[in-house]
Fold:
Amino acid sequence: MTRPESKSLGKRNCPPSHQHLKKSIEGPPKTLRLPQLCKLGGDISSVLIVRQESPWNKYRPALLCDIAGEVIIATHRSNPSRLRAVREYPKADAERLIQRFGCLDHANILSSRDCYIDANSMYFFVEDLPLTLWNVVSSPDIYPTELELAAIMSQVSLIVSIFVDELTDKVLDGLCYLSGFGLTHQTLSCGKILLGTNGRIKIECSPTETHTIYANTIPGITMALMQKHEKDVGITGVNDLNRWPVDSDAFGFLSAASTESIESLRKHHLVAARNQPTEDLVMLARAVL
Structure:
C-alpha cells in the first residue's frame, strides 16, 4: 500500500476584517415628552411617549375605518406586515388629551402608549379593536347566549358605573376618578362600544368640559343585543320569549334595567359572578368578525 503524497498546506487566508460603516441620521433631533403620570404604581409600561413629529415619517396610512369613530389603519414603512390603529384628534385639545391618555388607565377605556404631534393634529396609537357591539346586533343569525350577554353587560355596566354615582345616579363631581380628566361620552350605544377579538369591551372617551348621564341607555343596549332592535321609547321587553323566557336571568336583568340604579344592576345575578367576562366573548367576537 502506497502512502499518498502529502500536500503542502499553505497559510490560511484570513477573511478581511469587517468595515464599520457609520449611519448618518438626518433631520432635527426628536423630542420625547413624558408627561406627569398618575397612578403608575411603578409600571413603566403605562408611560405615554409623546413625539413632536409626524407619524407618517415612519408609518403609512392604509385604511380609514369607522369603528366607534374614525380609525386609521397604518402600516410600518419598513415592515408592512406591522399594522397599527391610530386615532387623530385636533391639536387644540393637546393638554387634555395628553392628561387623559397619560394618566387614565382602565381596562374598559381605550388607552394609548404612543403619541405623535404634527403642525395640526395629534395621533394616538391605540389598541386595534376591530369590532363594536353593533357588529353583533347587525349579524342576522347570530344572537349572544345568556352567558355571552352576561359577559357583555357586566363590562358595560362597569363602564356606566365609572361615570354615574352609585348612590344618587347623578354624574360624579370632582371626587370621581374620571372627573379630573373632564371626560364624557355623548352617546353610549352598541355602535359606540368597542369589542376586541380577545373579548374585551372598551369605549373611546374624548375630553370635554362637561359630563353626560347615560345610565338609562342600559335597557336599549340590552334589548338590541337580545332581539336586534329596541322597542319604542319608554317600553322595555323582548318579543321572542322562547329565546329569552320570562324566568331567565337575562329577562330579569332587562326588566330591572329600566327601574333600578346602576349599583343594583351590578349586583344582579346575571352579571355579579362574571370574574373573567372576556373569555366568554372570544367565540362571539370571532363569529361576527
